[in-house]
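Ops channel
N.P.: pipeline sanity check, posting one input/output pair.
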């Protein structure tokens, strides 16, 4: 990914839902002006959800999610519907595509779930050129669902500008408005970043949380000084005054805390992203469960990205090692990666999630809510490491 591109996780996720052959894929093609999605008269062309990053005027960077029809049938169809169901946890906004076929009972069920999850919904009738009585269909949708559908034709592009405007109006208030370092820095502050360039850092590049944090600080007109962990003390001596804030990789918490100036607050990239992508208060509360672990406990490590295990991997090696050192070698640690997150979390005494930089905030929050609903405490890498290091009460939280 080029650093000039908006990360997928920061894009407005727009899920498109409807029956098979209701015109969902054609709608994406019309909105984007590209043949992005496969279109066919054969029902069920779309199987797994298809994600397409685009720039949508006047909104900006978005991620379209083209889903299988929720009326799919058979054993394979049930799996497709399940995949469509999973996208509800990621959608910041939904387009519900209505067709003249059916009794709308399934649309009603999906709309109810979207509204229960506070997902804004824009109603769409996408095949105006093929529907004989569009006005009657609009009236039914308005009456049954309190939606004023936007009538479009993917073939003629009729109604596409109106749909773009409707999507812009439906964007959740405050979407991506928060700053990563909000409340921690002011214009003119000097901020020191401690960034180990070890085996976990991609050669020739910085990891995404580091890049996004640097950009956030520059936008806030701060002076940014970056060092590797072994150059921390020389960097501190080179500064005329102690930095206003130190942000470190969580794996260096202990070392950085020992040598930093007393007056300089300390946090980590993972802690910042715990707030930016999730719920920092919930993570801090979840970290209290660490004190209750025993040698017989079971912990789930959840990673957002999928990658081959690396030597000294923070989630697969360092955190499990720290837990077993404290509670015993028999403590069980399971790993899940990407979207492979268990439906049932009750076998676990604690879930420790990564920073979530590869997920959009809505999806991370849905995982926190899932854990809370099942009574399972959940925290994240940075908060857990601060707790295990004994400095959680001494670091600053966004």
């Amino acid at each position: 990914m080029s650093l000039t591109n908006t990360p997928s996780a920061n894009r407005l996720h727009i899920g498109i839902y409807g029956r098979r052959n209701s015109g969902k894929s054609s709608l994406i093609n019309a909105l984007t002006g590209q043949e992005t999605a496969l279109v066919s008269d054969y029902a069920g062309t779309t199987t797994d959800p298809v994600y397409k990053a685009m720039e949508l005027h006047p909104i900006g960077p978005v991620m379209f999610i083209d889903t299988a029809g929720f009326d799919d049938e058979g054993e394979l169809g049930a799996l497709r519907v399940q995949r469509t169901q999973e996208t509800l946890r990621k959608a910041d906004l939904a387009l519900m595509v209505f067709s003249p076929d059916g009794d709308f009972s399934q649309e009603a069920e999906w709309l109810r779930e979207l509204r229960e999850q506070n997902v804004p919904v824009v109603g769409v009738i996408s095949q105006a050129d093929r529907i004989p009585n569009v006005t009657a269909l609009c009236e039914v949708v308005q009456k049954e669902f309190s939606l004023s559908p936007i009538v479009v034709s993917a073939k003629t592009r009729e109604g596409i500008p109106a749909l773009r405007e409707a999507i812009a109006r439906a964007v959740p208030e405050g979407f991506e408005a928060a700053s990563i370092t909000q409340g921690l820095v002011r214009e003119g502050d000097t901020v020191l970043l401690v960034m180990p360039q070890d085996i976990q850092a991609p050669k020739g590049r910085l990891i995404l949380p580091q890049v996004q944090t640097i950009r956030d600080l520059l936008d806030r007109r701060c002076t940014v000084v970056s060092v590797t962990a072994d150059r921390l003390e020389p960097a501190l001596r080179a500064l005329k005054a102690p930095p206003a804030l130190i942000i470190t990789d969580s794996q260096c918490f202990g070392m950085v805390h020992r040598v930093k100036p007393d007056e300089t607050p300390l946090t980590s990239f993972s802690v910042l992203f715990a707030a930016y992508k999730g719920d920092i208060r919930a993570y801090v509360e979840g970290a209290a469960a660490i004190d209750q672990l025993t040698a017989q406990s079971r912990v789930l490590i959840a990673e957002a990205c999928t990658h081959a295990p690396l030597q000294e991997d923070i989630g697969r090696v360092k955190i499990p090692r720290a837990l077993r050192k404290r509670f015993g070698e028999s403590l069980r640690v399971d790993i899940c990666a990407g979207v492979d997150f268990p439906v049932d979390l009750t076998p676990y005494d604690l879930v420790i999630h990564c920073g979530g930089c590869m997920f959009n905030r809505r999806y991370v929050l849905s995982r926190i809510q899932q854990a809370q609903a099942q009574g399972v405490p959940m925290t994240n890498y940075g908060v857990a490491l601060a707790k295990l290091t004994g400095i959680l009460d001494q670091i600053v939280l966004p």
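N.P.: looks fine end to end. The two ends are 28 Å apart (CA to CA).
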